[in-house]
Amino acid sequence: MRFRPLLALVLALCLTLVTACSGGAKAVDRSQLTYDDIHNTGLANDCPTLPDSARGSIALDGGRQYQLREICMHPAEVYVKGEPANKRQEAQFVAGKILTRFTTSLDQVYGDLTVTSDGLQFKEEGGIDFQIITVLLPGGEEVPFTFSSKELLATAEGSAISTSTDFNGSYRVPSYRTSNFLDPKGRGLTTGVEYTQGLVGLGADSDGLERENIKRYVDGTGTMEFSITKVDGSTGEFAGVFTAIQPSDTDMGSKDPVDVKITGQLYGRLEAV
Predict the structure, then answer these.
(1) How many domains does the chain have?
(2) CA within 20 to 30 Å of 269's CA: 39, 58, 66, 214, which one?
(3) Which range of residues forms the domain containing residue 196?
(4) Cα(81)–Cα(91) distance, rounded to whole angstroms?
(5) pLDDT by residue (tens digit) across 197-251?
(6) CATH of the domain at 256
(7) What are the start-end ranges of the E strands in the chain?
(8) Same domain flag for 65 and 193
C-alpha cells in the first residue's frame, strides 16, 4: 500500500516521456471509427492532418480536369474588429472566444481546379460550406456570424500543388437569419408583420425604427486565403492554414455588420476527373 503513490508517480512520468518523444497525440483516422466512437466527442469537427514529413508536390497537366475534394476548414481563432478608442486610431481586431461547440468546421467542400495560363483557379461548388458560429468578446458582447466558403473563387500562381501554393479569393456570406425568422415582436420577412401595433404610437415608420421593422435578406462578401504547407504526392492530400475576413450578422438588416477574421487548419485532397 505504501508504494502506490510512488508507483503512480513513476507511471505518470513514463507516460509524459512517451508523449513528448512521440511528438504529441496523433491524428485520428475518422474512416476507421464508428458512429458511436464519434458521437458527442467533437472528433467530427476536427480536420484530418498530415505528418510534418509530407513536403512533396503534385504536378498538374493543363490538358486534364481536376477537383479539390474533402476540403475541411477548422476555425481555431476568431477575431472581431472593434471600435477605435478615438478617431486618430484605427480599428483593431480583438480576439473572441468561440461559444459554438462541435459544429464550427466546414467539411467535404469540393470544386473544380483549372490550370490556366496565369496559374491555378479553384471554383467552389458545394459541400458543408457554411456554419453558424457565435463568439464572445472580452466586454461580454456576443457576435454571431455565418462562416462560409460558398461560391469561393480563388486563384494561385504556378502549375503545381506544393508547399508554397497560396490561394486567394472571395466568397459569398449568406444571411445569418432565414426568411421565415421572426424576431421577439413577431416581425419577419416572409411571415409575421412589418411592425408591431404597440409601436404605432411611437411612429413605427420613422427612420429610427424602419430598419427594425422592415426585414431584409442581406448577403455579404468575404475574402479568403489558404496556404498549403504539407503535400503528400502519393495520395493527393494537402494540408495547411487558412485566413478569412468576412462580415458578421446584420439581424436581417437592422444593424451594421462588423468585420470578423477567422484563422485555422486546412485539409483537402486533389483528384483528377
Answers:
(1) 2
(2) 39
(3) 178-214
(4) 6
(5) 555 555 555 666 777 777 888 899 999 999 999 999 999 999 999 999 999 999 8
(6) 2.40.160.30
(7) 58-59, 66-81, 93-98, 106-116, 119-128, 130-136, 142-148, 150-156, 160-161, 166-173, 220-232, 237-247, 259-272
(8) no
